[in-house]
């Protein structure tokens, strides 16, 4: 059985590589600077680094879906917006 039914493009591969690198970077960050104590941000509940990464990834998915619905391709604008949102999430949430 081959994998020809899957849409494996360089963009799909890049997506999974970036997710893997983010998880590896978070692991190294936690190893080098242990703790990362939970903090209460603008959402009103305590979040850790991992929580903020998860929120950022979810936000990125929704930003890209909304971009596709409204503007279509290319997705560079959505990626830039998702990166800005991720920075804001890590700073404020």
User: How would the global form be characterised?
Assistant: flat
**Fraction in helix:** 55-70%
Low-confidence stretches: none
What is the H/E order?
HEEHH
Give the overall average pLDDT: 88
Overall domain count: 1
Instruction: State the distance separating the first and last CA atoms.
Output: 45 Å
Proportion of strand residues: under 5%
Got a strand count? 2
Sequence of strands across the biggest β-sheet:
1-2
Give a description of the structure.
This protein is mostly helical and 93 residues long. It has a two-stranded antiparallel ribbon. The longest helix has 23 residues. Strand 1 and strand 2 form a beta hairpin. The chain has one domain.
Short description:
The chain is mainly α and 93 residues long. The chain is 67% helix and 4% strand.
Labels describing this entry:
93 residues; mainly alpha; two-stranded antiparallel sheet; 3 helices; 2 strands; 67% helix; flat
What does the secondary structure layout of this molecule look like, with pairings?
Elements: H1 10-32, E1 39-40, E2 46-47, H2 49-70, H3 76-92
Antiparallel strand pairs: 1-2
Helix pairs in contact: 2-3
């Amino acid at each position: 059985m081959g994998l020809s039914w899957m849409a494996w493009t360089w963009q799909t591969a890049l997506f999974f590589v970036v997710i893997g690198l983010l998880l590896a970077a978070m692991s190294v960050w936690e190893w080098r600077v242990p703790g990362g104590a939970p903090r209460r941000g603008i959402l009103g509940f305590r979040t850790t680094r991992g929580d903020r990464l998860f929120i950022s990834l979810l936000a990125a998915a929704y930003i890209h879906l909304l971009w596709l619905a409204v503007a279509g391709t290319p997705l560079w604008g959505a990626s830039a917006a998702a990166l800005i949102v991720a920075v804001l999430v890590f700073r404020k949430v």
